[in-house]
């Protein structure tokens, strides 16, 4: 264990929740409602249950290994070096896609509040990545402190919005013109997986955690359960304020409109602040862990050695800068829907693989791993078929 370890339960939980909720509800709500309609809440529930099962597998494997690295580490320990190397590259691509999604969402909400020229959303997206990369370069202490503040702030605002909406319950507000059936809920469950990937970042922060062997099995399910509750509450409460159809039409800034409907300009400002906190903390958490994944893989010769370079404080600054640069490019050229779905496919495949490793190694609760493996595989297949226009 690193002598620099300083992430306790609150900081670790905040890093995981920040990685999930930041992109989860602000970036995906409109996308999920578009494909699942009134069953969007079911999509978040199904996705959350698969994530919960996978969190169990991640914790069991990471504790057994006693090292950071996540699925990459698990595969290497089984002597699958080539698969491990390709999996690491795929994961880094997936995380870079999520940073782009978070930045895209940050730019959309901030520009919607500030007004300005057409280039402002992209400009603010770029600025958010640059600033948060700078925070990461300062080191773990600064990054974790920001995470704790941001996470508690956004949870308070999102919970207030959800409660206000639910107090005005009208089931008709959940419907959209072309209401999907149950298959839409399953497609939506696949789509939301980018919203749940944040918990696995903890597997890469193992050496940064205090008493990780005891902490990890507690903090992973706690963070996932927090995300499930928030997602379901907001997916039911927000449509009560503006209607599901409006959320789909304004999906890039939908919750800001819901906030305005709830509390006028005050609500609009509060939700915009929550969006800024959420996306900023998600960028921060994802950059923090992804750069450390790249450092770990590079130190073992499975990636270019440049990713293993660190500064005097041990921060993998080259990885932070390279990942940030690619994310900036994707945020400028990408569209929110395709970025979300592409990232979700990546993480579904990884989730299925992690659960399969647990089954093969016979550790933890095998029935949970089987549920996670089958659920992730099915969701990945359906989402990929949907992306290809087959369903």
Automatic annotation (TrEMBL):
Domain of life of the native organism: Bacteria
MF terms in GO: transmembrane transporter activity
InterPro entries attached to this UniProt entry: AA/rel_permease1 (IPR002293), APC_superfamily (IPR050367)
A GO CC annotation given for this chain: plasma membrane
Stretches that traverse the bilayer: 12-33, 39-63, 83-111, 123-141, 148-169, 181-203, 224-248, 268-294, 315-336, 342-359, 366-385
Membrane-topology descriptor: Multi-pass membrane protein
A Pfam short name: AA_permease_2
Keyword terms: Cell membrane, Membrane, Transmembrane, Transmembrane helix
Subcellular location: Cell membrane
Name the UniProt record assigns to this protein: Amino acid/polyamine/organocation transporter, APC superfamily
């Amino acid at each position: 264990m690193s002598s620099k370890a300083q992430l306790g339960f609150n900081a670790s939980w905040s890093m995981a929740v920040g990685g999930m909720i930041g992109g989860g509800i602000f970036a995906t709500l409109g996308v999920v409602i578009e494909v699942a309609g009134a069953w969007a809440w079911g999509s978040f529930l199904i996705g959350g249950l698969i994530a919960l099962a996978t969190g169990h597998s991640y914790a069991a494997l990471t504790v057994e290994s006693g090292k950071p690295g996540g699925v990459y580490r698990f595969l290497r320990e089984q002597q699958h070096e080539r698969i491990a190397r390709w999996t690491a590259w795929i994961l880094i691509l997936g995380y870079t896609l999520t940073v782009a999604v978070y930045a895209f969402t940050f730019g959309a909400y901030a520009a919607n509040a500030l007004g300005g020229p057409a280039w402002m959303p992209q400009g603010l997206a770029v600025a958010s990545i640059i600033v948060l990369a700078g925070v990461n370069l300062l080191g773990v202490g600064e990054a974790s402190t920001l995470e704790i503040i941001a996470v508690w702030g956004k949870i308070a605002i999102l919970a207030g919005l959800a409660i206000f909406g639910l107090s005005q319950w009208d089931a008709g507000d959940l419907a959209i013109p072309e209401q999907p059936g149950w298959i839409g809920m399953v497609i939506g469950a696949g789509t939301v997986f980018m919203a749940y990937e944040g918990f696995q970042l903890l597997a890469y922060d193992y050496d940064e955690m205090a008493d990780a062997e005891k902490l990890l099995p507690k903090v992973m399910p706690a963070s996932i359960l927090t995300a499930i509750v928030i997602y379901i509450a907001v997916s039911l409460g927000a449509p009560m304020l503006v209607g599901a159809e409006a959320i789909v039409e304004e999906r890039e800034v939908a919750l800001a409109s819901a906030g305005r409907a709830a509390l006028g300009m005050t609500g609009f400002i509060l939700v915009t602040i929550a969006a800024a906190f959420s996306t900023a903390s998600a960028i921060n958490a994802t950059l923090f862990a992804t750069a450390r994944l790249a450092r770990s893989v590079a130190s073992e010769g499975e990636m270019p050695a440049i990713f293993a370079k660190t500064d005097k404080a041990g921060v993998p600054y080259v990885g932070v800068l390279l990942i940030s640069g690619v994310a900036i490019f994707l945020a400028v050229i990408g569209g929110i829907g395709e970025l979300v779905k592409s990232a979700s496919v990546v993480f579904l495949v990884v989730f299925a693989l992690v659960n399969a490793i647990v089954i093969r190694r016979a550790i933890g609760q095998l029935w949970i791993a089987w549920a996670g493996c089958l659920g992730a595989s099915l969701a990945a297949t359906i989402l990929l078929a949907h992306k290809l226009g087959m369903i």
